[in-house]
Fold this protein.
Amino acid sequence: MEAGQIQSQPDTTARHRVGLEEGWWQERVPAWSRVDAATFHDHAWQLRNGVSRPSDLVPLVGDLVPDGFMDDLAAGLRIAPMCIRLTPYVLSLVDWTDPGPDPIRRQFVPLASEIEPDHPRCSLDALEEQRDSVLPGLVHRYPDKVLFLALQVCPVYCRFCTRSYAVGKDTGAVEKCSLGAGRDRWERTFEWIENHRGVEDVVVSGGDTWLLSSAMIRRIGERLLATAHVRRIRFASKGLAVLPQKILSDPEWLDVLAHLASEGRQRGVQVALHTHFNHPREITSVTRRAAQMLFERGIVVRNQSVLQRGVNDEPGCMTRLVRGLSRIQVQPYYVYVHDLVPGVECLRTSLAEALDLERAVRGQTAGFNTPTFVCDTIGGGGKRDAHSFEHYDRRLGIAVFRSPVVDPERPFFHFDPMRTLDRSVQAAWRCDRTQQEMIHSVLDQAGFGWSH
Ligand SMILES: *Cc1c(COP(=O)(O)O)cnc(C)c1O
Ligand code: SF4
């Protein structure tokens, strides 16, 4: 596709957009035909009416979905590492009459029929966050920044969550490590940060910080603002994408965030919100209102997307996402090449596909609103620019990266999905010996020799 044509491409989501006039949920979900706007846009109603079991879904969309869908979903849930949880808002963005290809369904609701075997190198916590944890839920991988996992719950659970080792409830497939919002654990975290003057940047994540009460957000924010060497604080939350009603209907929470941002500005500290939109259809009239309120209060918002096959891997779609975010003053910051996460091999793309997409998107809008495509490398090398591999063997589906800041001597990897490889290469991956040989040959090419 030629870049210039993207805007005039038929917009396959137009049908959905038209449906998203105020009150859309009443038509989409017959059970909500009497839910008025004041109710639907109340964040507490949204949380109280979350859907977390197939049996919750049946009365809402059971009559809309194709035959066999509910069985497919139940079977998918038995093998998935993530439980499901949807807000009514997210549920209402799905076209349940055709849920198979729906890009919103695909992100949050697993189907057994689409699951592919995991890559042989896939493991829970492939990024080795637990190895780099200095305390439970405090990851210190880069010299001047830390990742503080303040809680382990989210208003909506993503199938592809990198942190499926900790986030969400235990599932049939995974027992989670525990990182609750405990007072003592937080206190030890604050003390560790206070005692490490090199830490300038704190990412407060989880889980989703949208679920922290205003008192908790205030406690974390004020404590970090009182730590003189901390210059940047980010609250990570998918909330703007999955529960924007919080901004519209929880003024106390918004006030606390705005207060922290303004306190920060006075001290020369940036307090920002990092959010997570993956598809242009996730930007609705409600999102626009919420984003405008954040913008008026001077809160910097950046977006981190996860590249997913069948969701946002097509140039026109990614371009609409990037432009749509730019229009509401949310800065597209990163697009992550999908990590190796158990149970979601079907959502991964190859590195080559990510590079092609980047080429198509760059230049479509302002450079400062063009996301960097990054690969969070296997083995804990951290995020690397997707283009910066030492060597990439497309036939074998192996890319080798260096990460001098983490460890100048060690190689870090990305592995393409098996589906994208020739049959003979797939067979080689299934045998331990040939797998080792392939990895060693690529390490040689990348200049690492045989010592690894
Ligand atoms: C992503 C991440 C950060 C923040 O990295 P940026 O590239 O600055 O966004 C910090 N610590 C860990 C462990 C991370 O994974
Ligand atoms: S919102 Fe973030 S932490 Fe929660 S499940 Fe999704 S990716 Fe994981």
Remarks:
- The chain has three domains: 16-114, 133-385, 389-452.
- Residues 16-114 form one domain.
- Residues 1-19 have pLDDT under 50 and may be disordered.
- The two ends are 41 Å apart (CA to CA).
